[in-house]
């Protein structure tokens, strides 16, 4: 496997810590233990996004990858890959008798009934803006939160949060992945004054980088400490306590659908994180009672070679690792395809990017 050049020392440390939350491949595990992830999204107009997200989750290594979509999207998404389990459970204006008078909690019940079987959710890819659908998904978000199921919000999933920030405010098992425009909308909804992200000068500009980190940290704090990946020429990740910047080079083509590789990768990383905290395997680390409450606490956990990481630190690490893998997919796909690069080209690079950046953990059996 070819190495990735120009990785900073700090990033190498983060990759070595990210490897800690990756379950080793062991004969004792059974189907489903290494990740059951569901993408909630997909409507008549948008079937590619939920597919790209779910297949990235599968390619990274989750055991079971689901798509929960609107009825008309189900046969189309299913036709893309038999490896995905597709469920036509999302209601829409077209599928209810009276769109103006609905019982959203009842309509959401078939999806909510699946939550106990899932480790993580990705909400938003191809969701669309149908009023009935968005109300039902808001109920699913409430139910997932009440059950402490981690989730990623992107695209029109972020629109739900923009209209009702209270849905996620204070929920520490949540990752938002806004682009420049979505970040601005969220900041405005929370009453945060941030300078425009559209005038980014160049990578390596420390002042600009600090400005972006500050803005991301402000928004995270305003939302009670949710983790935010602010996508851009470089990705800024913050949980309101600590901010990190991805220095992994991406490709130069901005094709639609690249963000779906990010959300799917995050879904699998969140599922692996759950397995790590459930102690599904012996990581060789020592337990400690203190959660990381400050920047120094997080730094101490990331620099320690034998201390088990707390949930706040592993969530930040999962977000950073998902960003890095996606950027490496983009770099490699662009290297191969140039300006013709499409979202499906990133899909082909997910596993290789994982191996180059993070690699299999110690004790993994990759050969029979």
Automatic annotation (TrEMBL):
<dbReference type="InterPro" id="IPR000631">
    <property type="entry name" value="CARKD"/>
</dbReference>
<feature type="binding site">
    <location>
        <position position="260"/>
    </location>
    <ligand>
        <name>(6S)-NADPHX</name>
    </ligand>
</feature>
<keyword id="KW-0521">NADP</keyword>
<dbReference type="GO" id="GO:0110051">
    <property type="term" value="P:metabolite repair"/>
</dbReference>
<feature type="binding site">
    <location>
        <begin position="231"/>
        <end position="235"/>
    </location>
    <ligand>
        <name>ATP</name>
    </ligand>
</feature>
<keyword id="KW-0067">ATP-binding</keyword>
<dbReference type="GO" id="GO:0005737">
    <property type="term" value="C:cytoplasm"/>
</dbReference>
<feature type="binding site">
    <location>
        <begin position="179"/>
        <end position="185"/>
    </location>
    <ligand>
        <name>(6S)-NADPHX</name>
    </ligand>
</feature>
<keyword id="KW-0963">Cytoplasm</keyword>
<dbReference type="GO" id="GO:0005524">
    <property type="term" value="F:ATP binding"/>
</dbReference>
<comment type="similarity">
    <text>Belongs to the NnrD/CARKD family.</text>
</comment>
<dbReference type="GO" id="GO:0047453">
    <property type="term" value="F:ATP-dependent NAD(P)H-hydrate dehydratase activity"/>
</dbReference>
<keyword id="KW-0456">Lyase</keyword>
<keyword id="KW-0547">Nucleotide-binding</keyword>
<feature type="domain" description="YjeF C-terminal">
    <location>
        <begin position="14"/>
        <end position="357"/>
    </location>
</feature>
<dbReference type="GO" id="GO:0046496">
    <property type="term" value="P:nicotinamide nucleotide metabolic process"/>
</dbReference>
<comment type="function">
    <text>Catalyzes the dehydration of the S-form of NAD(P)HX at the expense of ATP, which is converted to ADP. Together with NAD(P)HX epimerase, which catalyzes the epimerization of the S- and R-forms, the enzyme allows the repair of both epimers of NAD(P)HX, a damaged form of NAD(P)H that is a result of enzymatic or heat-dependent hydration.</text>
</comment>
<feature type="region of interest" description="Disordered">
    <location>
        <begin position="283"/>
        <end position="307"/>
    </location>
</feature>
<dbReference type="InterPro" id="IPR029056">
    <property type="entry name" value="Ribokinase-like"/>
</dbReference>
<dbReference type="Pfam" id="PF01256">
    <property type="entry name" value="Carb_kinase"/>
</dbReference>
<keyword id="KW-0808">Transferase</keyword>
<keyword id="KW-0520">NAD</keyword>
<feature type="binding site">
    <location>
        <begin position="250"/>
        <end position="259"/>
    </location>
    <ligand>
        <name>ATP</name>
    </ligand>
</feature>
<keyword id="KW-0418">Kinase</keyword>
<keyword id="KW-0597">Phosphoprotein</keyword>
<protein>
    <recommendedName>
        <fullName>ATP-dependent (S)-NAD(P)H-hydrate dehydratase</fullName>
        <ecNumber>4.2.1.93</ecNumber>
    </recommendedName>
</protein>
<dbReference type="GO" id="GO:0016301">
    <property type="term" value="F:kinase activity"/>
</dbReference>
<feature type="binding site">
    <location>
        <position position="126"/>
    </location>
    <ligand>
        <name>(6S)-NADPHX</name>
    </ligand>
</feature>
<dbReference type="InterPro" id="IPR017953">
    <property type="entry name" value="Carbohydrate_kinase_pred_CS"/>
</dbReference>
